[in-house]
Design goal:
The protein is an alpha+beta fold. It is 31% helix and 25% strand. The longest helix has 23 residues, at 268-290. It is globular and about 70 Å long.
Length: 424
Amino acid sequence: MKEFEGYKYIEGGVCAAKGFKANGLYCGIKKPAAPADGNESPLDNMKNDLCLIVSDEMCNAAAVFTQNKVKGAPVTVSQKNLAATGGRAKAFILNSKNANTCNADGEQKAMRMCELVAERTGIKPEEVLVAQTGVIGQIFPIKPVEEKIDELIAGLAYDKNLEAATAIMTTDTVKKEVAVEFELGGRVCHLGGMGKGSGMIHPNMATTLNVITTDCAVSAAMLKKALSETVKITYNCLSVDGDQSTNDTCAVMANGLAGNAEITAVGEDYEIFKQALYIVMMNITRMLAKDGEGATKLLECTVTGAKDLDTAITVAKSVICSPLFKCAMFGADANWGRILCAVGYAEADFDINAVDVVLASKAGSVHVCENGAGVEFSEETAKQVLLEDEIRILVKIGSGEGTATAWGCDLTYDYVKINGDYRS
């Protein structure tokens, strides 16, 4: 991971900040898969599918959600709860395997999950956030949650971030968590997060399920501002397959236990906090892209020379979202014309005759386009560059100050296979 001066990567994920406990377990929302062979027990397939995060103190909170017209019940419930409390929360319950979306009783069951936590922790139901992920359109079974909620709460601990991070995985192949330590006003602060997502990722305001916790003291208004600004240049610059989920949720909870003076306005402390938030969210964004369903390569497109940030974002995302380009990267084919094609249909204003393109990886780099036209390059060198598992596409579109990065992955045979039998 890229180093940032004044910030230190630490272990702990959502438990890295003071005063946050977590736990995750298998409750049976999805029945375990049958053993693959005679040497495997059904217990081996009982992966965590329910988790809970609880703060010792009440938190200021902010969240962003999917803008899909079809919204999962937990999205609606969390939005209502945040509105009711004025941006306050103390707990967050999440499950995988079932999205609880497009169900007539969805909101009732999502709220019931909040009530189950509240009844056992002495807080109000509206002080609990909820998120769910999995198959859309299947009735959510609340009974397994009711049966396991006591065990889930009893097992809460300051070091169970791993149990929580694995509980929200669906087609993810690896857990995704990052945490950093930094100073504010002489106080040591921590900020950590966990995310999930592998497919149906093409966000607008948020992506997948993401929980971020911090012991930094920040007002709800400043949390909302920092989250919105950071989402724009991280999660919103991510695309795996062009499909926007119905349940996208990204929430930040701040309990203030670091003891710094509360951040209530834009200033130096705000910028230090926002940079910590960026570091965590940017790294999780990269993890989400690299673990795209069936992916073999992380693709990172950086656009420079744009007239402004929005133009740079639009062009970078256009490249990352191109199915033909993604296929070319899977085949390690330096078909730079597909990059120019995607740059060209981006809804942004720039001079196509000023576009330069370089393909790069740890194996080296190759300049493939200058002033909107191809230049001679070694196909053999390009092949070696593109055979690596992390590819950078550097696109210059002028001499402006705007720059942005978007992240994605290649498109492989396995993506079709995974989504062809997703429900089975």
